[in-house]
Structures
1.
Amino acid sequence: MQGRKSVILALVLTSFLGPFGMLYSTIIGAVVMGVLYITLGILTAGIALFVLHPMCIIWGCWSAHQENLRAGV
């Protein structure tokens, strides 16, 4: 049985660490957002990060919540 994932911890980790914080809740999401951070960050001189960072936070929290629902806790 898997343990409960804290949505609050996912929020804190993704807020401070971005895609690296998503490793707590979703590895695939962390890889996707990491690639987007690098690619779009370079192409837009960092402007895209103002959109990507909130998306990262939302995805990390949502993923932790979904994991809790799947685990039945």
Note: The chain is about 70% helix and 0% strand.
2.
Amino acid sequence: MYQQITLIGNLGRDPEMRYTPGGTPVTNFSVATSRSWTGQDGQRQDRTVWFRVAAWERLAETCNQYLTKGQRVLVVGEMEEPTTWTDREGNTRASLEVRARTVRFLNTRAEGEALAAASGQSGGQSGGWGSGGGAGQDPGGEDDIPF
């Protein structure tokens, strides 16, 4: 069996990179996906869903180097098992986690530089692909099409 999720959204915070005890880099960041619609009552409705994303190996290093809060990204990966808990008010909550295989930076270079300047960082890249090691490295190959 195979499952894949594709997200397009904005980073909710700057990425955080750490290393496993074996020395493998992993970068974590959050992505907000939003949609808007008009309800039956004519009122505009908005819904935002947050995803926690983990990028590994070379992809982790690239994401940590170039991504900043607010940037628009496309993430392709696999859903991990959701984590559920009960908050202080007794509501059941879930954390949706994605292991990224591909991350594409969707901001233009000018937008990336403006975001980097606003966050106090230098540089900024956009429009590039990052891909991690392991299976499915090349997101654009015809061999990856499952049909």
Note: Confidence is low (pLDDT under 50) at residues 122-147.
3.
Amino acid sequence: MAQFMMLLHDKLDGFSALSHDEMMSVIKEYTAWTEKMIAEGRFLGGEKLKDEPGRNLLAGTDGIETHAGPFTETNEMIGGYMSIEAADYDEAVKIAKTCPHAKYGRIELREIDPIK
């Protein structure tokens, strides 16, 4: 089985308009999906990332430079990640489409290329 990383992209204002009850409902969706993936032996791990800018490190003329904000676009950030197992990209796409995040943001799906 191949391993895939789901990078969960969020709008910067993401879930800010949701009430507490609405947010709890969204959390329950993610929890139920994760539990289903665990039961099926598909879920390898994942975490939500803090709602803060983070840092970008890149080579500059004076060495390694650090910049605030890991934004791929000015209106979004990576809000979390999940790793799953699937036979191939087609199956991974089918699994990713069932993730609640597909309704709330954007999922970048990448196959993991094991180092070992």
Note: The longest strand covers residues 76-86.
